[in-house]
Amino acid sequence: MNSPDASNVTRLINKLSPLFEVAADPTLKNWLKNVKNQSEKTDSPINFFKQFPEFEKIIVDATEQRTFRPQNKEKRKKFYSGKKKMFSTKTQICIDKNHRILDVSKSFPGAVHDKKMFDIEHTIVKIPMQSIILTDLGYLGINKDHPEANIILPFKHKRQTKELSSRKKQFNKELAHDRIIVEHVLCKIKKFKICSEIYRGKEENYNQTFRNVSALVNLNYSST
Length: 224
Hints:
Layout: H1 6-24, H2 31-41, H3 45-51, E1 57-66, H4 73-79, E2 80-81, E3 86-95, E4 101-109, H5 114-120, H6 123-126, E5 132-134, H7 142-145, E6 150-152, H8 166-190, H9 206-222
Parallel strand pairs: 1-5, 5-6
Antiparallel strand pairs: 1-3, 2-3, 3-4
Helix pairs in contact: 1-9
């Protein structure tokens, strides 16, 4: 019996890859959507949070991973992250206070701003209107775009003004304390070398790889 050639093995792995996500966390794909639908049927925030207390606060953040330097000049512009000073791919996640990953966005070139990812993904539409959304300064402006939503951002120090007041500094400190959960989740994701070292796979396979790891992280939290 002849061994399958490398191309056939690669195609088989690509076909099986989405099954890892389903096996580890079959709810990841639709859980946030399902809860959002439930929120629209609930008559009050109190009743909604009785049913879904973990949705009181949802943290949104983006992470990026180093990729190889693209050979194409236009691609180099798209994938170069000025923030991290490297070529990268970015993905946004939403999590609840129980460390559960609720949503994984598509993956974007490193030059795409966090707020733009939020807008392209229509993240505001995915999240229940009763939930408080916690973000960092990478999402500056989304509160103005969506004044009807419960969005909390840290105060930004402006160059032309004095330092932030002690009250604003304390507010930022408390917000950072609430948001530290997302750093713990991202740390769990990056314990998988495929999501922490230079990504060596095909660009079109990256997002599913990230989703698979996210599902495994959810599985780990649900079993502890």
